[in-house]
Amino acid sequence: MRANLHLHSRRSDGTLSPAAVVEAAAAVGLEAAALTDHDTLGGVPEFLARAEALGLAAWPAVEIDVSDRETGYRSEILAYFPGGRFEGTRELLAEVLERRRERARLWMSRVPRVFSREDLSYEGFLRFKAGDPDGDAPEGEYSLSKTDLFEYLKAQGVLTRAAEYREFRKAYFDTDLLPSGSYRKTELAEVVRTVRSDGGICVLPHPGHEFGDSLSELSRDRKGFRSLLRRFRDLGVRGVEIYHYGNPDSEGINRIAAEEARDLGLFLTFGSDCHGPGSVKYTIRDFRGDFPGWPGD
């Protein structure tokens, strides 16, 4: 199947609704897709319903922030649920989403003073996130991020439309004008146990990120990469993502990732990490892979 199994919607830091993500996938000829919003499964029902209507294979999925003390890994893990069950994982993520909301409340307690705009509020931020500026302020399964705050401030005219997120982050978060509000990432082992109890499958995303998306760095520390994969496999992670790094090293990084994964009995998925039009990662047109299906199907 022509597949891209790493896509984001407005439920986290993407720019499209879950249904519109499916439509974009169909428009570029994909046969299979998965919505992997950060720390939320809230967009899954809409995504699956639209995929069924358009004849795309699709599965519930999510990208979860994790940490692993043994390896120092502080990034993400992809979780897929081919059987359709994810109740335990959703319960675990409810706590994570509350941590994200607490962080957003902290930002918005400072924003009116920093930007001299008393009309800016947490409730307005939530309405913007939900895409309904005149509606209620839902605290549902939306994953609030620094990128969302950046887009909210642009929409309110606080920042220019040409403003860039990296410069915004440097100017406000890196200088502590706005509090970063780091929150505790869930332990990888706990996430994997929970996902597996739901019948789900965990996959290591974009492994090249751990080596600066650099083929030379990965090649120099291939032994360390193999050790990381072995640790993940021993915890119950079953796959490794072949990824669109968007640089000349992408093919080489993916070749090494595939070789090491197969040597350790891990299967491969394919993803571009697309965040939609208007984002810095509008990649759904640029990458796909021949996905044979989930192990055991």
Number of helices in the DSSP assignment: 10
- What is the mean predicted local confidence, pLDDT? 94
Helix coverage percent of residues?
40-55%
What is the correct CATH architecture of the largest domain?
A: Alpha-Beta Barrel
Walk me through the topology.
Layout: E1 2-7, H1 18-27, E2 32-35, H2 44-54, E3 57-59, E4 61-68, E5 73-80, H3 87-115, H4 122-130, H5 146-155, H6 165-173, E6 186-187, H7 188-197, E7 201-204, H8 215-220, H9 222-235, E8 239-243, H10 250-263, E9 267-271, E10 289-290
Parallel strand pairs: 1-2, 2-3, 4-6, 7-8, 8-9
Antiparallel strand pairs: 1-10, 4-5, 5-7
Helix pairs in contact: 1-2
Description:
The longest helix has 29 residues. The chain is globular and about 60 Å long. Helix 10 links the parallel strand 8 and strand 9. The chain has two domains: 198 residues, TIM Barrel; 78 residues, no CATH class. The mean pLDDT is 94. It has a six-stranded mixed beta sheet, with helices on one face. Strands 3-2-1-10 form a four-stranded mixed beta sheet, covered by helices on one side. It has 297 residues and is α/β, with parallel strands linked by helices. The chain starts with a strand and ends in a 7-residue tail after the last strand.
Feature tags:
TIM Barrel; four-stranded mixed sheet; six-stranded mixed sheet; 10 strands; 16% strand; alpha/beta; 2 domains; single chain; 297 residues
